[in-house]
Every structure is written in C-alpha cells, then in structure tokens.
Write a structure and sequence with these properties.
- Two copies of one chain form a homodimer.
- By secondary structure, chain A is of the alpha+beta class.
- Chain A has one domain: Mth169, Chain: A (2-Layer Sandwich).
- The first copy, chain A, has a three-stranded antiparallel sheet with strand order 2-1-3.
- The radius of gyration of chain A is 16 Å and the shape is elongated.
- Chain A starts with a strand and ends with a strand.
Chain lengths: 81, 81
Amino acid sequence: MKVHVEVKPKSGVLDPQGNAVLEAMRHFGLEARNCRVGKIIEFEIADGTIRREEIENKLHEVSRDLLSNPVIEDYKLQIEG
Amino acid sequence: MKVHVEVKPKSGVLDPQGNAVLEAMRHFGLEARNCRVGKIIEFEIADGTIRREEIENKLHEVSRDLLSNPVIEDYKLQIEG
C-alpha cells in the first residue's frame, strides 16, 4: 500500500520560508502572495503484515509525532490500495 | 489563481532524508520502504496582471530555476483557476 503524507504550516502561522520564496519570485518578475512551503513524504508498506486498522493508527501516530510538528503544522494522510 | 508546485527527488537519486524517515519509522514499529521526501510550494497570483500564457512560462521558469534542482529533482506544476 502506498502512503502519501502532506505536512503544511497551519494557517495563521508565520511561514518565513514561504516569504523568502515570494521575495525570490519577485526577482524573477513574478508577483505572488500567500506562499506556504510544506513537505511531502511518500512511502510503501508491505500488505498483510499487520491489520489495516492497526496500520492506519500507526500512520497517524507517525504523521503526528515524527513527520510533523503539531504546534505549527497540519498533516494530511492519504492511503492508496 | 492558485499555484501548487510539488518538488520530489528523481527516481534513482538517493534520498538520504527518506532513508532517515524509514529508519525513524522502524523505531515506531512501522516497517516501510521506498520513502521519498519532497516539498510542496503553494501560492496565489493576482489575475489579470499579465497574460495567462506568459504567467505559465514564468511559473515553469520559477519551478525549474528557483524551486527545484533539475539535476536531482522533478517538479509538478498545477494551476487552478
């Protein structure tokens, strides 16, 4: 099964990396706004090793405690297959 | 118009960050494989400032030259609206 986790700064949280990108784009002649920079983490899990429900709980645990910082970031978990 | 750029390591390119995530997930009791870590960059562009075609060219230029490293990364550009 394929797992796709998106981690983005919460709305309302200052995103200095996004602001740096806006500034750099301005030098390319592109006026943009509200830029947010996040992460994508993709991986595969072998099917049938543990129960589906158990895997999903584990994936939420990993997304919350390892892949994101819940104080300033939100995660979105997608599981395929 | 909303712009969404995904930047991921090319397949075949070693992803040390992905390997670190796999290792860390193992400590959480989750056996995964083929982990790749990428970036998402989202921003908005005010409509009507320049021609659509010109904006798209500009966005590809920015995605290639600023947001990604074409030697080791691929980008995917999505434009909404």
